[in-house]
Amino acid sequence: VVSAAGPTDALGRVAVVGLGLIGGSLARLLAARGVDVVATDVVAASRESARRAGLAVTDDLPACLAGVDLVVLAVPLRTMLAVAEQVALHAPAGATVTDVGSVKAPVRDAVRAAGLGERYVGAHPMSGTEHSGFEASDVGLLDGVAWAVTVEDAAGVDPSRLAQILSLVTGPCGGHATVLTDDVHDEAAALVSHVPHVLATQLLNAATGAPVHRVARVLAAGSFRDGTRVAHTDPARTEAMVTANAAWVAPALRKVVRDLELVIDALESNGSVHAFFHAADDVRAAGIPGRDGTAARPPGDTGETVELVAGWPAELVRRCLDGEVVVTLDPESGATLLPAR
Amino acid sequence: VVSAAGPTDALGRVAVVGLGLIGGSLARLLAARGVDVVATDVVAASRESARRAGLAVTDDLPACLAGVDLVVLAVPLRTMLAVAEQVALHAPAGATVTDVGSVKAPVRDAVRAAGLGERYVGAHPMSGTEHSGFEASDVGLLDGVAWAVTVEDAAGVDPSRLAQILSLVTGPCGGHATVLTDDVHDEAAALVSHVPHVLATQLLNAATGAPVHRVARVLAAGSFRDGTRVAHTDPARTEAMVTANAAWVAPALRKVVRDLELVIDALESNGSVHAFFHAADDVRAAGIPGRDGTAARPPGDTGETVELVAGWPAELVRRCLDGEVVVTLDPESGATLLPAR
Question: What percent of chain A lies above the pLDDT cut of 70?
């Protein structure tokens, strides 16, 4: 099921710290693509499961970090600072640090507090399931998906480290990358992930807490099943994700409340809700984001190339804000971008 | 793909008026189960498609209604009154009338205005897709699903007509039925269907209307795809459904707003959102409504039987409000009920 992908030899050795759903899936994918990957986890059972799955696993973090060129932090946000401090102590001085978290600015704060700010580039693969833990991980989960790759600001990032992460995403991961500032990522993630999680939770709470909850349960069909699916993911993880991005989630929810109040007022006064239900008609005609794909390359379209000359990170950030995504990166010929669908 | 089901001979002839997604799927299912079913639609192309699918189709409504024992109104709510008036003119005087609409009280109002109130029992199959029209209909769409079967009040319904509809649902449709008053149905439907549709629309509007909408589109993954799926159904149909049930949708949305304001206040003040995210933990442990099934019969469980003696409709309404569902109906042995899962 794992397709061919780009070159892996230039990546060197990769440490994946944390063998949960995402860390486990990433380690499986990199190993399947021939990358020299070594992983670890604080939970012995997860390490054993990963070994049985054929992965190279060390029992402790310092051993995992020895001689690596890239460290992927795949641990919960609450342990990020403590783990980053260990990475600062034990990883080679030149190693680049990245992560796979769903909120970027708080991770950068933690990594910077550990003294790794100059070596850090953020990353966030846009994939997941309602399950968690290594047992739920899968070699295909992160294969070919969209990633966000984040910088604090384009002028401040180390271009070679950014290139390293883009090579990881577009090479062995077979994916494409949108290069964003942390803030743009966190604002957009609030809209397409964190607010959906809050509303799914609200739907589940309201239906199951109502006097007619037994009837509601019997009547629940497609719209309720889909609308509440992510409310069945680990609520502690959702709470942590939403809380970590409170700065963007709160104003996005304020807008939800304002918009809903207009709908309620119209429903209560026999007014029109036509504009509300038809506001996104253009988008409906264009297909469903996240279902109809975002970066399928049209046959024969070779994309636009950005050479890796001075200022290229800023050029990628500018283009990605406009909806393009990086599909390949080659140190000599440059980065290839395509418009997202 | 269509499994065996209960007896069909007692149903007599059934007219399905309207060959959209639901009417088309019902006509296909009844025909596959050997029911004498005849259908029609005002759109010639839909009639032609249905004929090509092997269904018995008449060009006009009076011909469709000739000699039938049961009329299923599968037309939009806005045309319900006009169609019901035609049914009152052309259907046999003894024929029972039902429908498949997603809101019950307004349908009863229309049917009563046409003079058919005494002959009407409401019905609502809890299934659908994001598509519409006969081309999207499928013999399996309504096979074995949950139905709501509604009465204005249990004392007022004609028991023989209620039995007729329950036989349809639990017999050739292979489904199970929750017998409700119109109001309980419409309140529960607001919670598990109409509010989810509003929130899905809101999510789509907010993400696609934001300054970072191009980035949001690239980052959209599972939670956004699921959370907005029903926002891609025909918005005019959704608007009509929500507007028709405004009396229940508006207060349910007011509760959404109140709950979200508590979440926002907590996020803005570093307060706790723990209770919000964990309110439905019991439900999470019990499985996902609409995904994990509602009425799977445990092996060896033959259910409880309610004999069809005086007052049986009230007994069914009482039990269904408590979460039981009707799985079989036999004029001699009675109705069998099982607890919904």
Answer: 92
Note the pLDDT of residue B1. 40
DSSP string of B247-263, one letter each residue: HHHHHHHHHHHHHHHHH
User: Best mutation site among B124, B215, B265 for testing chain A: the one with the most A CBs within 10 Å?
Assistant: B215
User: Which of helix, strand or coil describes residue B313?
Assistant: helix
Which of B129, B224, B321 to mutate to probe the A interface, most A CBs <10 Å?
Answer: B224
Question: pLDDT digits over A222-239, tens only?
Answer: 888 889 988 988 899 899
Tens of pLDDT, residues A69-95:
999 999 998 899 999 999 999 999 999
Q: How far is Cα A162 from Cα A336, in angstroms, rounded to an integer?
A: 15
Nearest-CB residue to B197 (from A196, A223, A235): A223
| Angle at which helices B195-209 and B246-268 cross, to 10° | 50
- DSSP, res A69: S
Inter-chain touch B196–A224, beta carbons under 8 Å: yes
Selecting from B219, B231, B232 the residue whose C-beta is nearest the C-beta of A189 gives: B219
From A316, A180, A188, A324, select the one nearest B216 (Cα to Cα). Answer: A188
What tens digit of pLDDT does each residue of A92-135 get? Answer: 999 999 999 989 999 999 999 999 999 999 999 988 777 889 99
Q: Which two tokens stand for residue B92?
A: 């046999």
Indicate the helix (H) or strand (E) that contains A53: none
Least confident residue range of A9-13, B209-213, B224-228 = A9-13
Chain A residues close to B238, C-beta within 8 Å: 277
B contact test, residue of A21, A124, A151, A217 with most B CBs within 10 A: A217
Candidate from A197, A221, A279 with C-beta closest to B127: A221
Q: Taking residues B211-224, what's their average pLDDT?
A: 86
Instruction: Name the residue among A198, A219, A291 with its Cβ closest to that of B192.
Output: A219
The whole-number pLDDT of residue A300 equals: 57
pTM: 0.80
Tokens of A180: 């964003």
- The mean per-residue pLDDT over the stretch B151-156 comes to 93
DSSP character string of A102-130: S-SHHHHHHHHHTT-GGGB-EEEES---S
Q: Are A102 and A241 in contact (CB under 8 A)?
A: yes
In angstroms, the CA A201 to CA B272 distance is: 15
Count of residues in chain A: 341
Mean pLDDT of B159-181: 96
SS3 A139: coil
Tell me the chain B residues in contact with residue A180 when contact means C-beta distances shorter than 8 Å: 215
Report the gap between the CA of B15 and the closest CA in chain A (Å).
Answer: 25
For residue A230, the chain B residues in CB contact (below 8 A) are 222-223, 226-227
Residue B296 distance to chain A (closest CA, Å): 12
